[in-house]
Fold each of these.
Amino acid sequence: MPSSPWDTENIDRLIHEPARLAIVTILNVADSADFLYLQRETGLTKGNLSSHLSKLQAGGYITIEKTYKGKIPLTICRLTDQGREAFRAYRRYWQAFVKKTRS
Amino acid sequence: MLEEIKKIERRMFRHNLEDGVFEIVFGIFLLLSGFFVFAYSFMSKKTIFPLAFFLGYSLTIFLSLLLMKKMVRSLREKLTWPRTGYVSYQEGKQRRLKAGLRGGITGFCFPILAGLAQDLMGSVPGFYSYPAVFGLVLVISFCWISFRSGLIRFAAFGGLYAVIGLILSFSGWKHMQAWAAICGVIGISLLLSGLFVSRRYLHRNPVPAEDPQ
């Protein structure tokens, strides 16, 4: 929990970036989503989305499974337990932040 | 930031109903139910046909609940996923939406079966025989879906079905025919709406020309 409204030390920088936050939010609601779905929902380019997914995977927040459906390659992304917990903590942080700034 | 998160979550809820596939499948199911009840209303209670029909229909309803999921998935595999990508909702809040849909379907089917059983046993048609009950069940389910997804058309459907249910209840029709009518009306409206929404969805979301990977 932040000690002051502007306490930025506790912000999870990996999630804080808007594009990655959108990805994590989507994967928090869904069980899994493929690359095309994430690309359409976030509006990112393929390169950008790949880069953000790699960072989230490196941080242990998501898993990426490459598979095929017929001849079509599918890249399925899932949030890990660590990622889900990080998202919840990030949300709690902002809720506390809003509460503090209102009071 | 929190607003952005909520916006994305709401869009996710909506996505499941945006392609019209659920409406098409549910509409077909209700139309078939309407045909069944209509045919049943003309059967002589002295023969074995109504009982056989009732048992067959009970089985069909429960099989349909299983088949509907497969049909929705199969249609999405062909229509939705190649265009807007694959997403599965097995965890998190989407469960509640699915539970709501299942509850709505079950809430619709149960009164039909109970009413048919009552009719078959020759007792006086009671509470279940009124189409208004169906309308009210659907108002609750559809308004909830509309509230969760932000899609106004479902609230409009709920209101429409409540009015139709009330009209049919006081129309003086035989209760079986009134059931058939409300099943048919709801089925046709959902089917038409689903086809319209689906057509618009396919038009707006062409298949990506190149490999998305």
Note: The mean pLDDT of chain A is 84.
Amino acid sequence: MTDFGVQRHDRHRLIGWFDADRLAATRVAVIGAGAIGNEVCKNLALLGTGRITVFDHDRIERHNLTRSALFRDADVGRHKADVVAQRTAELDPSIAVDAVRGDVLEVLRPSDVARFDVVFCCVDNFEARLRLNELALIAGVDLVNGAIDARHASVEHFPFSQGRRLGCYECGLPPSAYQRIAQRYSCGWLRRAGLIERKVPTTIVTSGVAGALMVSWGLRMGPSAPDAGERPASTPGPDAAARRALIDTVTGRSQVSTVLRSDACPACSLVRDEVTVIDWPAAHPLVPTPASAALRVRLPEEVVFGARCESCGFDARGSVPLGSRVRSHTTDVRRCPRCGEEAVAVDGRDAANLGELHRALGGHPPSVPYLWIDDPRISFCVEVNDV
Amino acid sequence: MSDAFKVQIRTADQTRKAQVEVETDKSAGELIQAAVDNWKLPVDTEYTLVNVTRGTTVPAAQRVGSVADPGDVLEVQPVLVAGATREPRRGR
């Protein structure tokens, strides 16, 4: 688009290393359209990133307005993903911006992630970060993770497109983070009914800093990426490393470190160098052969294998469907519809063998986007279609 | 008795610093927990350990002896999650 002969990115092109054509061909996913997601999308659009897909399942609340440059008063109540996509597209009508209203825990499969060059993780909880880390690791797609509080911004870059033997998000996660996740659930991984969230206060200052560095690292801005030696920024190399930055927005001090790979990391121990992704159409029951029945299946989270009242023996599968995600149910399902006692026990599992999975779910896939078949002889990621 | 060496440990905002002697077979996670306990750092935050001298983020399970040298500066940094850590209103 011209304006008196001036091209939109003419000033950018004066920067020797700015590759507008490469950016125009870049496809990114922005997961989370809150404070950081707003900043990331704004930066991506102004730089001319060719295709941006925004994911969020939430709606705009009034308190979001103080930290979200793309939201307006009149947007309160609208879906965040829709508004961010609309306003981002207005910043540069020549780029393509899509909105997906959905919970990444329910909708994203590795092949969905593989369609992008970079995934920007702008979510607000550990569970979604862990899932995105696993998805990006399986898909071999770069992941940029951003998080903030009132004072600090932290940014992590995991260039999985250059190999899976780097440190990942879970490699650097302390055990206490899993305890934090567990606090949201009962001992059976049912969501606790009546939760109140402890709100972490943040400002546009920290989200702005995080969003700027995330985009710089994610798009590999600069004459040569720090992990690429003297190569052009767009050229990956075998010496890539995962990086973490913590920036104190009050003092201006920042600390950049390499994220080391952990031998104890659950994600890295699951995903090997070569990953084969296969398809499981939901309409087709999976019937294991005698040989395959013993294959070990790992699910990304617990699903329901059974539900029964321990007081009266009532089979509660009507209210807690087989194969559904345990975490999609609240502790309210523990009250038995027949006897009224809080005694319904939900059998939730995130691992089984193929034969057990078939017996429990009748050959139909569980309500998760993918599962993992792992055996010393075979390692497949199985994607479930039409979840 | 395991080997020990001295390192400097500090918080990210550098308001707390100490020269400490650590046993080399202690894990990074144990070192973090000791800092949280001794300095009474907020317990509703997760932390990671960064070896500032080497420029590395240290996995919690790693032994200090394998990730640091005598005299290194180790920093206890918050692991931010942005927006929501959730607490139960009532236990069930």
Note: The first strand of chain B starts at residue 4 and ends at 11.
